[in-house]
Amino acid sequence: MDNWDHSVFQEKLGDKTDYGIMMGRAHAGKSTLAKYMVESLDCTLVDMKAIRDEVKKSMGTEEEPFEGDVPIAKSEEAICKFIAKAKGKLVFDGIIHADGV
After folding, report:
1. CA distances (Å), origin 18, targets 41, 53, 74, 83, 100
2. How confident is the model over 8-40, as pLDDT tens digits?
3. Where are the domains of the chain?
4. pTM (predicted TM-score)
């Protein structure tokens, strides 16, 4: 596929999906595609790394930043809160795992 065809996307997945997940190897263009979907298809970006970083920041102070791994349960809680407030279709960029994002 040389260029994006909105009509094919709408026909195959448009109104049938509520979310998408960007997965792949490093520097493959996942975040670029996710941002494109947000801009072009009016989706909401769920940036897993940004959410994890916010949780990590909230676990420490400016004088003593938190230095350990963010517990998955805390990340999941923050993600669920974000999703509950989000409108429209969701695009997840990244994934939470035991070593962070």
Report:
1. 12, 25, 24, 12, 25
2. 766 666 666 667 777 788 888 888 988 888 888
3. 17-93
4. 0.70
